[in-house]
Amino acid sequence: MDEAILDVDHLSIRLDDQLIVNNLSFHICRNEFFCLVGETGCGKTITSRAIMGLLERKMDVHGTILLDNDSNNLIELTEKEWRKIRGKKIGFIYQQPSLALHPMLTIGNQMLGILKNEKVIKRKEAREEVHQQLLEMNFSNPEVIASAYPWQLSGGMNQRIMIGMSLLRKPRLLIADEPTTGLDTINQQIVIRQLIKFQEKYKMSILLITHDLRLVNQIADTVAVMKNGEIIEVAPLSTIKNNPQQYYTKKLWNMMPDAWNIMMREESYAIRSK
Ligand SMILES: Nc1ncnc2c1ncn2[C@@H]1O[C@H](COP(=O)(O)OP(=O)(O)OP(=O)(O)O)[C@@H](O)[C@H]1O
């Protein structure tokens, strides 16, 4: 897991006289579950948008973002160059699927559209691939789902569809910005289990942005803690939990009693089962 798929070096983002992101450096390895955490407004989403080349023009960006051993700095790419990367090499799952799914197109047609942009494929084969992907997303009735419109499905179903759509192109890096926000606990777990399953299956790296430390505790390999536009600590999950170097990191975990409770339960279970 050591080779870097994404290398962010001295990234700064400024808007007028506000420094939104200050001198961020981190890297994400192949097959790594990398969690970016921090309080509201600290700059997590803006950072992910910079990695996706989706910042507004008014933002002033400096630094280097390299993907998959390519020497081209992502922040210097033109929109035409981005079209070969966005969605294809870097997938993205939005916080609100309703913003990403077209309300007037069926799920099947939206998925077929992605496949047809991707490769020359016969309609029958494309349909089969869409159904297969829906089956993989644990929909036992892919024909019904493919002919449904997003507004006919629940939020949890649409989020699973979003994941399935982003995986159709087998990206090397998947960015998931609060993918479980607004879902009930059962759907949160389904979405997370699917992310874990596909990360293993496709050897993807995942950048997960979340406030939910219980989730981080469940899945992270590495955790980066952001505060006021800066990354103040990056470390393996076990270090963040057991030996954080920053007082803020410790405070962040302490503010989440549930995270501690689960951790303590797991640890006591591990001790008991030795
Ligand atoms: N389009 C924009 N124009 C101006 N300021 C913005 C814009 N987008 C974000 N900001 C500002 O940049 C800062 C960081 O925002 P960002 O959305 O990255 O925070 P975040 O850590 O993702 O927060 P949350 O966890 O609530 O999603 C905030 O102060 C926000 O107000």
From TrEMBL:
Keywords: ATP-binding, Cell inner membrane, Cell membrane, Membrane, Nucleotide-binding, Translocase, Transport. InterPro entries: AAA+_ATPase, ABC_Ni/Peptide_Import, ABC_transporter-like_ATP-bd, P-loop_NTPase. GO terms for cellular component: plasma membrane. Residues 6-253 form the ABC transporter domain. It is a peripheral membrane protein. It is found in: Cell membrane. Gene3D superfamilies: P-loop containing nucleotide triphosphate hydrolases. Pfam families: ABC_tran (PF00005). One of its GO terms (molecular function) is ATP binding. Belongs to the ABC transporter superfamily. This is Peptide/nickel transport system ATP-binding protein/peptide/nickel transport system ATP-binding protein.
